[in-house]
Design brief:
This protein has 149 residues and is of the alpha/beta class. It is 22% helix and 38% strand.
C-alpha cells in the first residue's frame, strides 16, 4: 500500500464538473493498493498518516499532527502509484490491486479515518477525477507499507 500525503491549505476533487470532495487545512492523500494488502496493513498506514507530526507548532517547528490542528482529510484512490516503468515508455500497472479488492480497501480506509478525524472527504473510485490543491510548505510525504511494516 502506498500513500502520497500532501499537506495542504485546501484541496478539492471534481468528477464530471461537480466538486465531490473539498477540504481546508489538512492532508490530500493519494492511495494506491496492491493485491497483497490487508486491513492490518491499512490500519498501520492509517495510524502513521494520522500521527504524522508535520504541522507547525508555536515555535514554527513541524511538531503537530493532523488531530492537533483539527485538520481535514481528502482521500483519493490512485492505482497509478503502482506504475512499473522499467520496460519501455508505457507503464505497466500489473502490481495495482484488482478493482474490487482495491475499492474494498479504499472504502475501509475512508471509514477507519472517519472514526478519528472529523472531516474526511473522498474521491470516486475508478472515476476520471480532477484534483486541485495548494500544497503547504511544500510538504509531501510518501508512505510505503513495505518500509513501515
Amino acid at each position: 500500500m502506498r500513500f502520497v500525503i500532501q499537506r495542504v491549505t485546501h484541496s478539492s476533487v471534481t468528477v464530471d464538473g461537480q466538486v465531490i470532495g473539498k477540504i481546508g487545512k489538512g492532508f490530500m492523500v493519494l492511495i494506491g493498493v496492491e493485491d497483497s494488502d490487508t486491513k492490518a496493513i491499512a490500519d498501520k498506514m492509517i495510524s502513521k498518516l494520522i500521527g504524522l507530526r508535520v504541522f507547525q507548532d508555536d515555535n514554527d517547528k513541524m511538531n503537530l499532527s493532523l488531530k492537533d490542528v483539527n485538520g481535514e482529510l481528502l482521500l483519493i484512490s490512485q492505482f497509478t502509484l503502482y506504475a512499473d516503468c522499467k520496460k519501455g515508455n508505457r507503464p505497466s500497472f500489473i502490481r495495482a490491486g484488482k478493482p474490487d479488492m482495491a475499492n474494498e480497501m479504499y472504502q475501509y480506509i475512508i471509514e477507519e479515518c472517519k472514526k478519528q478525524i472529523s472531516v474526511v472527504e473522498k474521491g470516486e473510485f475508478g472515476a476520471d477525477m480532477k484534483v486541485e490543491l495548494l500544497n503547504d510548505g511544500p510538504v509531501t510525504i510518501i508512505l510505503d507499507s513495505t518500509e513501515i511494516m
